[in-house]
Amino acid sequence: MTVRVLSLLVSLALTAPLSAQAIEFSAQELARAATLQKKLLTLDSHLDTPANFHREGFDIAQRHDHNALSQVDLPRMQEGALDGGFFAIYTDQGDRSPAAHRHDRDAGLLRLMEIREMLAAHPDTFALALTPADAARIKREGKRVVYISMENASPLVDDPSLLSFYHAAGLRLLSTVHFANNEFADSATDAKGAEWKGLSPAGKALVDEAVRLGIVIDQSHASDAVFDDLIQRMPVPFVLSHSSAKAIYNHPRNLDDARLKQLAKAGGVIQVNAYGGYLIDTGKSDARKQAEEALMKKIGAGYDDLSMAQGVALKQGLADLDQQLPLRKATLDDFFAHFEHILGVVGPEHVGIGLDWDGGGGLADLQDVSALPKFTAWLLRKGYSEKQIADIWGGNLLRVMQQAQRHAAP
């Protein structure tokens, strides 16, 4: 079982019911927040929802709650006042053999095709966005906004020139690496440690080409040394699409305060995530890991091959495991500890929201996108202005995109 799948299972388990008291909002607070959020342009910078587009039984226009595989669909986006965001082309890291590189190349292109097919199948409810201005226009038309991103650039290893094709097809946000090192960059979480001490020569060339095309670079999942290379190399700001604060939980996927300040000085933005394993120490035991592996074998399919019906069984199985081998649950309180710290370090002009939905994100008291007004309620409670909240919910991210596209313009 891959690291990605095991991490997803941990995070899915973290959405079990709370046993401890958590942050609460009154009905009046939530109603005020929902009203404001519907007015604002609300974007999430990291949606792994395209991983579901090929699954048997999945239809983005239908509600799929009570399912371990799905946190985002149109009904819940409407309920949670989520206008859209960046839909990720994710490719699991292979063994870096020539055959794996070809597989990754094809997997990326297939995922891109699936996103475009979803758009073609739902022209009245979803629309592709290519520029920052497109998002507000699409919202005015009553549709949901779909930007395309790539998480892990491994589909480009076999042929880096494919980046221009992806850009023409809609790619606007690119990360170099994921859980393990690849030919472009070092990962924050590769057990073998650094291979390139940052970006590789091929990674530097890829970043330069992305800048030339106006594609925003995403540092999430890359090592601190990659961050340092990007700060030194890039003529435009970059973002972290789903990361949190190392000062609150010292995980290699999180960013320390010194680098947060460097990011802000360079004009960049960190989109704070809700992936439980990056917010807290969940206390996962070897017995729990083995039980999760046994559960997947019992269900009888690899994670990527599960049907939506099997997703229901997976949710129930994880709930049963949680009674037998409990984990600590990440909550909104844990998220807000990171969120408030980062806001204090860099200010609301450099913070956004990227919750890693359908890729392991979600909290015990925030299980899908239908509950997003809780974030707006918290920001209102803390005294942030409507303009600041609008920036956090998408304005800051689109400002970085605007800078990247202006720099690339002839």
From TrEMBL:
Respond yes or no to whether keyword Signal is given for this record: yes
Instruction: Cite the InterPro entries for this sequence.
Output: Metal_Hydrolase, Pept_M19
The domain of life for this entry's organism is Bacteria
Please state what the protein is called: Dipeptidase
Span of the signal peptide: 1-22
Which UniProt key words apply to this protein?
Signal
Species of origin reads: Stenotrophomonas aracearum
